[in-house]
Q: What sequence folds into this?
């Protein structure tokens, strides 16, 4: 029984690795862009790699570099990153009820939660064979496989980016800064097409940020934090009144 259980866990882990391969391939070029941008910002190769290893926050890392270049203070960068990543509270709440295993194991696996790993594991579990209740369950081994290969793609890409930064021309390195905006646009446009409410919230956030930054002369860090909170609160109230779940 023990051997059969170990085989099943290994099989689930391999399944997670195979499912997460698409995330690995998607993370790799974005992480390379981050590594190049980080090196061009003035961070050492070790600092760039350490940021991806310990922070592992994708868009937040790009934002942090952007704010750092703008001269924003460290507390503002930390707070802006915290606000941007508040969505992980919701994702963690959902996965904590679906991933099998004890609390310590689930806490360890929570480090691997990203937008992509969350969507991949929850959608694939709901589409799995068996009863509806069984489809809601996610084995710890499978999620670990998805999380590990995704994490590897981001870290490896970041390190490769610092290597490329030493050989790329200065103009190419500076152009990597546009990858931040390209990433957010790529994430935002599909949602805006599907929902007018998402478009309203996005435009509201942009307008508030512009007003705070240009008219009220608030620092870049605080304007981002304030605009995110206000626009999110308005969006939540709007959806609640509209009857959305």
A:
């Amino acid at each position: 029984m023990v051997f059969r259980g170990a085989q099943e866990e290994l099989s689930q882990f391999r399944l997670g690795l195979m499912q997460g391969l698409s995330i690995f391939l998607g993370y790799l070029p974005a992480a390379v862009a981050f590594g190049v941008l980080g090196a061009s910002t003035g961070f050492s190769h070790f600092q760039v790699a350490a940021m991806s290893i310990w922070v592992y926050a994708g868009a937040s890392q790009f934002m942090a570099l952007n704010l750092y270049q703008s001269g924003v203070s460290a507390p503002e960068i930390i707070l802006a990153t915290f606000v941007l990543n508040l969505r992980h509270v919701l994702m963690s709440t959902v996965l904590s009820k679906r991933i099998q295993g004890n609390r310590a194991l689930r806490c360890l696996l929570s480090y691997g939660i990203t937008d992509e790993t969350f969507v991949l594991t929850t959608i694939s579990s709901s589409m799995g064979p068996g009863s509806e209740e069984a489809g809601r369950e996610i084995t710890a081994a499978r999620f670990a496989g998805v999380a590990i290969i995704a994490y590897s793609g981001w870290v490896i890409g970041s390190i490769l980016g610092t290597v490329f930064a030493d050989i790329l021309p200065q103009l190419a390195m500076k152009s990597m800064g546009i990858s931040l905006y390209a990433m957010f646009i790529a994430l935002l446009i599909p949602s805006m097409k599907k929902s007018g409410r998402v478009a309203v919230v996005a435009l509201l956030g942009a307008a508030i940020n512009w007003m705070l930054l240009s008219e009220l002369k608030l620092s870049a860090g605080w304007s981002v934090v304030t605009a995110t909170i206000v626009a999110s609160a308005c969006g939540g109230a709007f959806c609640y009144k509209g009857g959305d779940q």
Observations:
- The chain has 13 helices and no strands.
- The longest helix spans residues 2-41.
- Residues 127-135 have pLDDT under 50 and may be disordered.
- Residues 76 and 221 are 5 Å apart (CA to CA).
